[in-house]
Amino acid sequence: IPLSGRNPLFQETLGLKPHLLVLNKMDLADLTEQQKIMQRLEGEGLKNVIFTNCLKDENVKQIIPMVTELMGSSPRYHRGENLEYCIMVIGVPNVGKSSLINSLRRQHLRKGTGA
Ligand SMILES: Nc1nc2c(ncn2[C@@H]2O[C@H](COP(=O)(O)OP(=O)(O)O)[C@@H](O)[C@H]2O)c(=O)[nH]1
Ligand SMILES: [Mg+2]
C-alpha cells in the first residue's frame, strides 16, 4: 500500500505544492520494512513521509513542525511572518483523514472528538 496506494493523478494536481505523505494505520502495518519503504519513496522523489497511528496520536505531533518547515523552505508559498496556512488532507476513503484531523485537534487545540 505505501508504494501502490496513491493515485498518480494526485502528484500532477499537487504539482510543486509542498506536501507530506502520511502513511496512517502504522499499528496495522508490518514495520520491519519501514526503512526500505522510505528509501523506495525517496527514490520516487518523496522525501517527506511520516508513519502515524491517529487513534493513539502516535507521531501526529511531528506533522505540524514538518509542515511548518516545509512551508518555510518553499519560497513560493512562504509568507514571511504570516504563519496561517490552509492545509488540505486528501486520500481515498477510510484511510483515516478524519481521524488525523481529530488527532491534530487533540494535540494542538486540546479539543476534538475521540477518534
Ligand atoms: N488501526 C487504526 N485504525 C485507524 C487509524 N486511523 C483511523 N482508523 C480507523 O479507520 C477507519 C476510517 O477512518 P476515518 O478517519 O473515518 O477515515 P476517512 O474516510 O479517511 O476520513 C475508522 O474506523 C478509524 O477508527 C489508525 O491509525 N489505526
Ligand atoms: Mg472522513
Automatic annotation (TrEMBL):
<dbReference type="InterPro" id="IPR006073">
    <property type="entry name" value="GTP-bd"/>
</dbReference>
<dbReference type="GO" id="GO:0032543">
    <property type="term" value="P:mitochondrial translation"/>
</dbReference>
<dbReference type="GO" id="GO:0005739">
    <property type="term" value="C:mitochondrion"/>
</dbReference>
<protein>
    <submittedName>
        <fullName>Mitochondrial ribosome associated GTPase 1</fullName>
    </submittedName>
</protein>
<dbReference type="GO" id="GO:0005525">
    <property type="term" value="F:GTP binding"/>
</dbReference>
<keyword id="KW-0547">Nucleotide-binding</keyword>
<dbReference type="InterPro" id="IPR027417">
    <property type="entry name" value="P-loop_NTPase"/>
</dbReference>
<dbReference type="GO" id="GO:0003924">
    <property type="term" value="F:GTPase activity"/>
</dbReference>
<keyword id="KW-0342">GTP-binding</keyword>
<feature type="domain" description="G">
    <location>
        <begin position="87"/>
        <end position="107"/>
    </location>
</feature>
<dbReference type="Pfam" id="PF01926">
    <property type="entry name" value="MMR_HSR1"/>
</dbReference>
